[in-house]
Model the fold of this input.
Amino acid sequence: MSRFKPVAGAYVRPTGGWWRKNPYFVRYMFREGTAVFLTIYAVILLLGLNRLAQGEAAYNAWRAALATPWALAFHAVALVAVVYHSITWLRVMPKTAPRLPVDPALITKGGLAASGGASVLIIAVLWWVAR
Done:
C-alpha cells in the first residue's frame, strides 16, 4: 500500500458547493462576500488620498473619475452591501462576545463616561493646536 494512492473505502471529503445546501451558510458566505465591496471602497479612498498628495490636478482628476455613471453605480451597490454587512455583523457580535466577569451596565456607563471625556480632551487639544 502506497501512501500516495487512495485506500479503498477511505473517507473522501466533499468539495465544491456543500455550503449552498444550508441556508445558514449561504447567508454567512453572502455576508463575507459583501466585505469585498468594503475593501474595494477602502482602496478607492486610499487612491484618493494618494492623488491628494500628488496635487490639486491629480485630485480633481480622481474626483472626476468618481463622477462617472459606473463609479456612481458601484458606490450605490457598495453602500447597500456595506449596510447589509454592518447590520449582520452587529447581529453576530453579541453571540460571539465572551461573557464578562462584571455587570455589563457598569461597563456601558463607564465606557460612555470615558469616551465622552476622551472626546472632550481630544477636541480641546486640537483647538489649542489650531490656535
The chain has a mean pLDDT of 87. The CA atoms of residues 106 and 129 lie 34 Å apart.
